[in-house]
Amino acid sequence: MTRLRIVSENSKEDMARKRAEEALTLPLLELAANIIRIVRGAGSPERLLSQMQQVMKVASEFRELHDASPPSWTIQNILALTSPYEKISQPVKTGDIAKAALEGWESDSTNAEEDVVRDICRAALQISASILLRQNTQERTAEHSLHFAARQLEDIKKKRRRQLNRHRRK
Fold first, then answer.
1. How far apart are CA 170 and CA 166, in angstroms?
2. What is the rounded distance in angstroms from the CA atom of residue 135 to the CA atom of residue 148?
3. How far apart are CA 127 and CA 138, in angstroms?
4. What is the rounded distance in angstroms from the CA atom of residue 20 to the CA atom of residue 27?
5. Residue 42: what are its φ and ψ, rounded to 5°?
6. 100-128 pLDDT tens trace
7. Which of 67, 110, 142, 149 could bridge across to 126 with cysteines, CB 3.0–4.6 Å?
8. How far apart are CA 168 and CA 165, in angstroms?
């Protein structure tokens, strides 16, 4: 009888690092979301310190396991506002998802609209951060980005309405 053996491309260290990064994800996202909500006047300020402690606990466990803090790019990737398109387009480059599925996504304006909505969110977050730190120059730059993205969103919606009206006339 032939014995099957499963071979992993990832080392035990790689898999341990991945698990440690995954353990950081939820606490870090919950903390960031709560801070954003508190800044906008909602959220749970009473949970803030315990959320910070949880993130630090997981980061300390990461450090103990890997003799280093979580890499900055890991933290950035966890907290980045990414669209479903951005999440699926990376595997396409490596051949994990059929290109036809991605092309269907790109053919309508869904991708463009989601990108612009994320630009609006990013600009609003920058405005908030700039107000908190009284950084007038950065606030004005972010306001410009916000207005530009809002105009882009309106253009996308107008284009979609024109296409819909043309389709209805046929």
1. 7
2. 20
3. 7
4. 12
5. -125, -140
6. 555 554 555 678 999 999 999 999 999 99
7. 142
8. 5
Four-point Cα dihedral 136, 139, 143, 145, nearest 10: 120
Cβ-based neighbours of 59, under 8 Å, separated by 6 or more: 24, 69, 70
Using the CB atoms, write b or e for 73-98: b if 16+ within 10 Å. Answer: ebbeebeeeebebeeebeeeeeeeee
The position carrying tokens 């043309």 is: 166
pLDDT tens, position by position, 39-97: 999 999 999 999 999 999 999 999 999 899 999 999 999 999 885 555 555 555 555 55
Question: Closest Cα to residue 75, out of 21, 130, 37?
Answer: 21
Alpha helices of the chain — where are they, by DSSP H?
12-39, 45-66, 72-79, 84-93, 99-107, 110-132, 136-169
The neighbour count for residue 138, using CB atoms within 10 Å, is 15
Q: Does pTM top 0.70 for this prediction? A: yes
Q: Two tokens at 100?
A: 């036809």
Q: What is the pLDDT of residue 86?
A: 59
Q: How far are the Cα atoms of 27, 137, 143 from residue 133, in angstroms, in the given order?
A: 25, 11, 15
